[in-house]
Design brief:
Pathway: Protein modification; protein glycosylation. This is protein O-GlcNAc transferase. By secondary structure, the protein is of the alpha/beta class. It contains 30 helices and 13 strands.
Length: 663
């Protein structure tokens, strides 16, 4: 202050005084100082940056960005406005602009390890994992003791399928920083994915304590909701994890500064004799070669066009595959929004007057849940992509079924439960895979190194879904059934040696565990019938895989628990009409049922024959019937909204008078 009083043109003093006032919490006075500095020197980069920082803290993102851009325009040697502008670009989904900012920071200082990590993070979010890995490697070379760089390198290795390298980097990060909750949790997930079960129970207890502590402190949990669905943790804790992630999505949405949207009026679709249609929007990053599109490919074009107008908003670029082309051709409106920011997408959805908006991602890769947090539509629904609760106040309904999400478990969901008849989990085999119904399988056991004369138990789930308890059960089954083997997938390949070692420790010869590579979809379905019986994983069931093997005519054994992801296979089995023969209620019953079927060839053959016979008639594979019931659900949601009621749970009935699909 003395410097300013002595020489009112002492520009730096104004800037320094502004910083001191800001640090003291006197922000309005700090702004005055920075503005005084700019009156004296309009292109003062530090003052412009400091004002940007204040507006950034106030969540006035566009104002902050304008000050950062002004600072960048008047200097080429200051990193901070570039770093901060990059953060804004990244939050808004403008990854290329963010990368350009970090690249400029690295031009100013090639040894800026923080900028390398930040650019690596942006590359990773942008799907350019190889470039992310290069940035992280460079960062740990410059600063070997930077725990964050090792942790992020580990995550990038994990995403690109290099699990062993990921485990090594996670462990290095924990050596440098033992109290690193995110790394502890990610290491556990990576170890699970390769069936490394050493200290598993201890690590799960540690991770559960971390999550509870973080939730109590209102921090974002280090376990992602998608990982939590497959963990043996309390379902209410999984709900709390989802809630925290939903709040984070709301925070991201708020940074765009959009005013609340005006929604279509709550008028019945057929009001006053007019012939209108219900406008339904689907948002997904998985319109392409992805299990979601393999399962739902026909759905978007099967809605009743006389009464439902369908809009698909694609969050991912065209991958050129048959699945993308088909959905694009069959959906009434298909819009590629992959290059747009989330606020622009939300505005488009609102301008399209969408009445029911469906989130097909949930907390899966490529999701942009902030779009839903902006609430561009009056009714918002979670379906298919994420088998659990979103924990989001802005998601009204979860489309599920009575077996997967029983009313007695409604307390573990934030959404109102909509129970579809039969099974909520749709598939497209009747349209796309009818050749599987042919009597002759084009594959032979010898094609995959499978023995011709042995009983083959199989599980084609990803290895992270396995746990020591179910593996113990499988080993007991193989030991009790003479001349039997267990067929698993290298999913990933790095789990094979550990699984064989676990088998040997349990008295099962490693050559009784046969691994094969993951196959392309069509081959995978067809070769499934080479097995005799499918053994499901209780902690996280076969979902897509479950429909694959049932369509191939391969019976399964499944043990439902409490959470949604543990009950899907049971619902699939029930929708074939043969659920009683495939669903068990305890680990002992699981083992005994598998042994009974394997040692009673006539009984197993009868079940297999019945399964093959019902494929074209049972509800599970009747896609058109399923879509008709989904239309009933959408109209019911809209009619509840029109009556002025809050969202409420309901069970869809195949009854046109009570649940019309067209009004």
């Amino acid at each position: 202050m003395q410097a300013i009083l002595c020489d009112s043109r002492f520009v730096e003093a104004y800037n320094n005084m502004g910083n001191a006032l800001k640090d003291a919490g006197r922000v309005e006075e700090a702004i005055n100082c920075f503005q005084s500095c700019l009156v004296l020197q309009a292109n003062h980069p530090q003052a412009l940056t400091n004002l940007g920082n204040i507006y950034m803290e106030w969540n006035m993102i566009s104002t902050a960005a304008s000050f950062y851009k002004a600072a960048i325009a008047v200097t080429s040697g200051l990193s901070s406005p570039l770093n901060n502008l990059a953060v804004i670009y990244k939050q808004q989904g403008s990854y290329a602009d963010a990368i350009a900012c970090y690249t400029e920071v690295l031009r100013i200082d090639p040894t800026a390890a923080d900028a390398l990590v930040n650019r690596g993070n942006t590359f990773k979010e942008f799907g350019r994992v190889a470039e992310a890995i290069q940035d992280y490697i460079q960062a740990v070379t410059i600063r070997p003791n930077m725990a964050e760089a090792h942790a992020n390198l580990a995550s990038a290795y994990k995403d690109s399928g290099h699990q062993e390298a990921a485990i090594a980097s996670y462990k290095q990060a924990l050596c440098l920083r033992p109290d690193f909750p995110e790394v502890t949790c990610n290491l556990l997930h990576t170890l699970q994915s390769v069936c490394d079960w050493e200290n598993r129970d201890t690590m799960f207890r540690e991770v559960e304590e971390i999550i509870r502590r973080q939730i109590k402190m209102s921090l974002l949990p280090s376990v992602q909701p998608f990982h939590a669905i497959a963990y043996p943790i309390d379902p209410l804790l999984a709900l709390e994890i989802s809630r925290k992630y939903a709040i984070q999505c709301s925070l991201i949405a708020s940074r765009f500064g959009l005013p609340p949207f005006v929604h279509p009026p709550p008028l019945p679709v057929k009001a006053e004799g007019k012939h209108a249609r219900l406008r339904v929007g689907y948002v997904s990053s998985d319109f392409g070669n992805h299990p979601l599109s393999h399962l739902m490919g026909s759905v978007f074009g099967m809605h009743d066009r006389d009464n439902v107008e369908v809009f698909c908003y694609a969050l991912s670029q065209n991958d050129g595959t048959e699945w993308r082309q088909r959905i694009q051709a069959e959906a009434e409106h298909f819009i590629d929004v992959s290059a747009m920011t989330s606020d622009v997408i939300a505005k488009m959805i609102n301008e399209d007057k969408i009445q029911v908006l469906i989130n097909l991602n949930g907390y899966t890769k490529g999701a942009r849940n902030e779009i839903f947090a902006m609430q561009p539509a009056p009714i918002q629904v979670s379906y298919m992509g994420f088998p659990g609760t979103t924990g989001a106040s802005y998601i009204d309904y979860l489309v599920t079924d009575e077996f997967v999400s029983p009313t007695r478990y409604a307390h573990i969901y934030s959404e109102k439960l909509v129970h579809l008849p039969h099974c909520y989990f749709v598939n497209d085999y009747k349209q796309k895979n009818c050749d599987v119904l042919g009597p002759v399988c084009p594959h032979e056991r010898s094609d995959y190194g499978l023995p011709k004369d042995k009983f083959i138990f199989a599980c084609f789930n990803q290895l992270y879904k396995m746990d020591p308890e179910i593996f113990d059960t499988w080993c007991n089954i193989v030991k009790r059934v003479p001349n039997s083997v267990l067929w698993l997938l290298r999913f990933p390949a790095t789990g094979e040696m550990r699984v064989k070692a676990h088998a040997a420790a349990r008295g099962v010869s490693p050559d009784q565990i046969i691994f094969t590579d993951v196959a392309m979809k069509h081959e995978h379905i067809r070769r499934s019938e080479l097995a005799d019986l499918f053994l499901d994983t209780p902690l996280c069931n076969a979902h897509t895989t479950g429909t694959d093997i049932l369509w191939a005519g391969l019976p399964m054994i499944t043990l439902p628990l409490e959470k949604m992801a543990t009950r899907v296979a049971g619902s699939l089995c029930l929708a074939t009409g043969l659920g009683d023969e495939m669903i068990v209620s305890s680990t002992k019953e699981y083992e005994d049922r598998a042994v009974e079927l394997a040692t009673n060839p006539a009984k197993l053959q009868a079940l297999t024959n019945k399964l093959k016979e019902v494929r074209l008639t049972c509800p599970l594979f009747d896609t058109a019937r399923w879509v008709r019931n989904l239309d009933r659900a959408y109209f019911k949601m809209w009619n509840i909204y029109c009556s002025g009621r809050h969202p409420e749970p309901f069970k869809v009935k195949e009854d046109d008078s009570e649940f019309p699909y067209d009004r």
